[in-house]
Design a protein that fits this description.
Layout (H helix, E strand, L loop, with lengths): L2 E5 L10 E5 L2 E5 L2 H17 L11 E9 L7 H9 L10 H12 L10 E10 L4 E8 L7
Parallel strand pairs: 4-5
Antiparallel strand pairs: 1-6, 2-3, 4-6
């Protein structure tokens, strides 16, 4: 049985870490936009998922679809083509950066550690309702060979 989650917000890609010097030390931090998005993802998912995180030792399959906004400057015909999926968003940001933001945000909420994810299907699509849809399956022992 899959866990189905929806984050109703414009997807934000994980940015590169930022660095600041504090005396002799260098501190790494998440850029504010990435940090705020991860916090929002956690909050949205905690409203939908009330169980304990899936324990370490349980491999997971993940399917994630990122729905981006359609540019407002397009014609109605072009808008419809994007809604139907005739034109896909093969533009920045990269899909793996979207994925990283979501998996980091859900560590400790849905799964104990994101290294439990062994299989992934990701998609980037256009929509008038920007969001992220996440499906998680726990692989039962011996079910996948």
């Amino acid at each position: 049985m899959a866990i189905h989650l929806t984050v109703n917000a414009i997807p934000v890609a994980q940015s590169r870490p930022r660095f600041t010097r504090q005396g002799k030390f260098v501190k790494t931090y998440d850029p504010p936009k990435s940090k705020a998005y991860k916090k929002l993802v956690r909050q949205e998912v905690l409203k939908q998922y009330h169980d304990e995180p899936i324990a370490k030792g349980n491999p997971l399959i993940l399917q994630v679809t990122f729905y981006r906004s359609i540019q407002k400057s397009l014609s109605k015909a072009e808008h419809e083509r994007r809604l139907k999926g005739d034109i896909l968003p093969f533009i920045k940001p990269d899909i793996d950066n979207y994925f990283k933001a979501v998996t980091d945000a859900l560590t400790g909420v849905i799964w104990a550690d994101d290294n439990q994810i062994t299989d992934v299907k990701m998609s980037k699509r256009y929509s008038d309702n920007p969001r992220t849809e996440i499906l998680v399956w726990k692989i039962e022992e011996g079910a996948k060979k």
